[in-house]
Amino acid sequence: IMEYSMYKTIAQKLNLTMVQAKLKFLRDKKFIVPFKDAKGATKYRIFYDGGFKRKTAYRNSLVDIIPNTWHIPKLSLMERLKEGVCELCGSNGNITMHHVRNLRQLKGDTPWNAKLIKRNRKTLAVCESCNYKIQNNEH
To answer: How many domains does the chain have?
Structure first.
């Protein structure tokens, strides 16, 4: 249980699925994380896999089984407008919302198309210059 909990935590931090996190970090059935030391050399740290002592569960446990759900709130349109940051270039200032009718028609060949497809959203808060570039197929 703790091992899979660690996989889920790492996957959540890196915005991956649990399977992707396992594929990225498992080597010879050990969870290995690369890091750079002070000299700049890449080293690897093996996480503990020695097991834990089994604890007997209480027979009359009143603990509920909580469903395994993670809810990450997505910003609403108004919050994204109030933030005042362009979601493409990151500039602050006057923000407009760019809308598309269908996500199915997007090909993902431009940065803004790819961003909409990845987030599964039909709106994008962009600055006026980025909006102009999108409208004229320059972005």
So the answer is: 2
